[in-house]
Automatic annotation (TrEMBL):
Keywords: 4Fe-4S, Iron, Iron-sulfur, Isoprene biosynthesis, Metal-binding, Oxidoreductase. Its EC number is 1.17.7.3. The keyword Zinc-finger does not apply. GO terms for molecular function: 4 iron, 4 sulfur cluster binding; 4-hydroxy-3-methylbut-2-en-1-yl diphosphate synthase activity (ferredoxin); 4-hydroxy-3-methylbut-2-enyl-diphosphate synthase activity (flavodoxin); iron ion binding. Binds 1 [4Fe-4S] cluster. This is 4-hydroxy-3-methylbut-2-en-1-yl diphosphate synthase (flavodoxin). It holds the Pfam family GcpE. It catalyses: (2E)-4-hydroxy-3-methylbut-2-enyl diphosphate + oxidized [flavodoxin] + H2O + 2 H(+) = 2-C-methyl-D-erythritol 2,4-cyclic diphosphate + reduced [flavodoxin]. One of its GO terms (biological process) is isopentenyl diphosphate biosynthetic process, methylerythritol 4-phosphate pathway. The gene is ispG. The keyword Zinc does not apply. Residues 272-357 form the IspG C-terminal domain. Belongs to the IspG family.
Length: 367
């Protein structure tokens, strides 16, 4: 639909060592992937698989499940086998669950060095088991569970402390010749998080999993994650992302995908170009934009659709759109590529846009 010009994108990606999380390549020249985490009890296999199916349908590429108990560990073989996307087991305190997850066929295991001091003397065995199965390990450092030794040394949760924790844990695996690793150094403050990832990116070539931990409810968490990921990805830092929201995980995936689309790191799907409205508006632009967005959600063709509040500037401002509407006098001027093709009553704007979108899809041979 859109002109096939090479997409403008952000800076050259940092060169990282590629790993495979199941079928999904992470790092190197692989596209930045979006992941999320289930909120169900992992031991509730049906509920967990149902949520994974919803996440998959919303564009999630890798899913993580929490494994805090033996019941959860026992559920892993079925979940790993039936999930449509690679499953990462998230393990904090119990080294035995790491082995269980590897045995269960999980695509990767996340461990938290701050919570796994008991793990350190088992790193050799974990490295061997993971290597035998070709399973990568994520070293997932969290501000909230940093080793007290590092807190004391650095005087708090600083970027340096987060990085030292991650690289220390990596060194333990490296001693066992294991480098099938990706790293995260999460903090709830984007400023600290950005600096930590910058330092980490400069000090190693491991693939990096970006996350702002405990980012908050949808509005605040979306902004924190967008700002932090945007800053880092624009510098070429970051190989996979997880948006953390106090909201259903499908929302995390939507936000993650939108961040990557906004940065030109993946093809744009539906792009609503709507004006902010002003004193010239002759329609409720906010409501109309929401209705058009909802009506075209999941449309099979990438479309840029303009929703403009007046005919004064509407078509001109949205010349780059595939189609759009400029409203005035209780009517909507429907335009394609900036040219008005018809005028319809306001009540028919949404259905007309849908018809035109379907026509464009049909011209491309897509139902
Ligand atoms: Fe105002 Fe019209 Fe521009 Fe919308 S398109 S912001 S209503 S001038």
């Amino acid at each position: 639909v859109r002109d096939e010009q090479p997409p403008l994108s952000v800076a050259t990606r940092r060169k990282s060592r590629q790993i495979m999380v199941g079928s999904v390549a992470v790092g190197g020249d692989a596209p930045v992937s979006v992941q999320s985490m289930t909120t169900t009890l992992t031991s509730d296999i049906n509920a967990t698989l149902q949520q994974i199916a919803e996440l998959t349908a919303s564009g999630c590429e890798i899913v993580r499940v929490a494994v805090p108990s033996a019941d959860d560990a026992e559920a892993l073989p079925i979940i790993a086998r039936k999930s449509q996307i690679p499953v990462i087991a998230d393990i904090h305190f119990q080294p035995k669950y790491v082995f269980a997850a590897i045995e269960a066929g999980c695509a990767a295991v996340r461990v938290n060095p701050g919570n796994i001091r008991k793990f350190d003397d088992q790193v050799g065995a974990i490295a061997r088991a993971a290597r035998d199965r070709g399973i990568p390990i994520r070293i997932g450092v969290n501000a909230g569970s940093l080793d007290p030794r590092l807190l004391e040394k650095h005087g708090g949760v600083t970027p340096e402390a987060l990085v030292e924790s991650a690289l220390w844990e990596c060194s333990l695996f490296e001693e066992h010749d294991f480098q099938d690793i990706k790293i995260s150094v999460k903090h709830n403050d984007p400023v600290v998080m950005i600096e930590a990832y910058r330092q980490l990116a400069a000090q190693c070539d491991y693939a990096l999993h970006l996350g702002v931990t405990e980012a908050g409810p949808t509005f605040q968490g979306t902004i924190k994650s967008s700002v932090a990921f945007g800053a880092l990805l624009a510098e070429g830092i970051g190989d996979t992302i997880r948006v953390s929201l106090s909201a259903p995980p499908v929302e995390e995936v939507k936000v993650g995908n939108q961040i990557l689309e906004s940065l030109g790191l993946r093809p744009r799907g539906l792009d609503i170009v709507s004006c902010p409205s002003c004193g010239r508006a002759q329609v409720d632009v906010h409501t109309l934009a929401e209705r058009v967005s909802a009506a075209l959600e999941g449309f099979p063709v990438p479309l840029r659709v303009a929703v403009m509040g007046c005919v004064v500037n509407g078509p001109g401002e949205a010349r780059e759109a595939d189609l759009g509407v400029a409203s005035g006098n209780g009517k909507g001027q429907i335009f394609v590529k900036g040219k008005v093709i018809k005028t319809v009553p306001e009540s028919q704007i949404v259905e007309t846009l849908l018809e035109e979108a379907a026509r464009i899809a049909a011209e491309m041979g897509i139902d």
